[in-house]
Amino acid sequence: MRLDEILRESVTFGVARLETRDGQQYYTDPFSKKVKEKCWVCHGTGKETYGGYTDDDGKEHPKSEHECGMCHGQGEIDDWKTDAQELNVANSNAMEIQRMLGLEPDYSGAIKKEDFPAFRRHLIKLKNSDISGYTQEPTVDRGKMRASTDDTGQARIGRGPTMHDMGRSHAQVVRYIDSLLSLMDFAQKNDCDLVWG
After folding, report:
1. Which helix (H) or strand (E) holds 189?
2. What are the residue boundaries of the structural domains of the chain, listed by start?
3. Environment class of residue 188 by beta-carbon count within 10 Å: exposed (0-12), middle (13-18) or buried (19+)?
4. The whole model's pTM is what?
């Protein structure tokens, strides 16, 4: 997994309008536009590169190039960009934001515009109270030392992955509350609901 793929694992809070098409209801973003973007897999080259290194056992892995599977060699992909406000947060922060709203956390959901007054009152009350229960100190969880055997049968000793949780500061929680209030204002002015996913 590439670093830019890891950084895409998040939840975005934004606005959308519920529309009915062919008897089904869908959320659509009335502010999004289809644009050409540089491919994030090949960085616009149209080629993916593999190999080009020597492993721990001294085995050479020659470099090879292939047509990018994402953009099919074009260097560009179609993407949808919105002009509307958004709040993009890590998955764990998105779950905590939903708890702050009094909701059962999920990776996607919506708050209808008719319910904004109650949620706004809740957020304003929350902002003017003790929010320390929603903050979290940063943590580092180091993988345990373990013995393993690699593909060639060679014994190895090493640690598992190290996980860094950046936590949530008081200022960060206040910023989330302010952003949600602003998103609700924007959604209400534009006849939209607040959505996340």
Report:
1. helix 170-189
2. 3-31+84-196, 33-82
3. middle
4. 0.70
